[in-house]
Amino acid sequence: MGLACALASSSTLAGTEREQFEYVVTYTGSISSNKPLDISRVVWVSPRPVASGASEVSVRISSEQFMKLELMFPFRYCYRAVYNRDAQRSQGFENFQRARKQLEYVSANFDWKKRILSSSSAKAELPGVSLNPFEGFQASAGQAAPSWKVKSQKSFLLPDILLDRVSMVQHLRTMNLKSGRVVSLPVSDGARMLEYWVDISDDEVNLLGKKWKAYRLRFETFDPVKDRPPHPPVDIWFSRDAERIPLRMASTYSFGDFDIRLTRIGKTGIQNIQCKNWQGFQ
Fold this sequence. Notes:
Elements: H1 3-13, E1 18-29, E2 37-46, E3 54-62, H2 67-72, E4 75-84, E5 89-99, E6 102-111, E7 116-125, E8 149-157, H3 165-174, E9 182-188, E10 193-207, E11 210-221, E12 234-239, E13 246-253, E14 256-268
């Protein structure tokens, strides 16, 4: 089954109701004079952790409601994947990112019958978008469509179990978590095969006017080709109940700290999310 078919059919395999969590991204670092600055809205949509079968999980991030960032560095990000809870593995994903004029798109298909992962990535520049920060992220009316150029095409042999990064989070939500446990998970971003180590501990999080008992999961990995981690350690907090709600996510980079906190818990129906050329929430 190709990626498009997997994405199209996933909603019928795991019911129609979806959970929807909303977050705000706060940055603190040199760019913000070391003061907390809200920069993006995040929306996560997925089935409940107990749902069986294959289902779509999506993450969308946009700076459109935060004018300080929107004027200087407008950003859009859309990622959707198909995770099969019964098989405990990914069936594929697509990932679209827009930073000012620069566009990047990655898609990967996990063909478990042929045991092949096929991926492709492409880049483009959005025409008609001004680089003047005071004009914001505005495209001219009737602008030409971006001209995509294939950056790379790759294929790998699939191991018995393989996840993508978003499916990995959903997969961990379905697991029997326990403080002191370390979980090792094979993951691919379409360009490389990685192994993530997830260290689990008990913690508490203050959010939405209450104190949550939580599991704190620390994610670490290493790129053997580049001989360094592809990113700093990432911490994610799940509620310590059957829902395993992702409450918070945090990571520290050389240029500052990012803290993503839950702001709203809701439900939604099936959403026809198309990541490529995603414009934002409005």
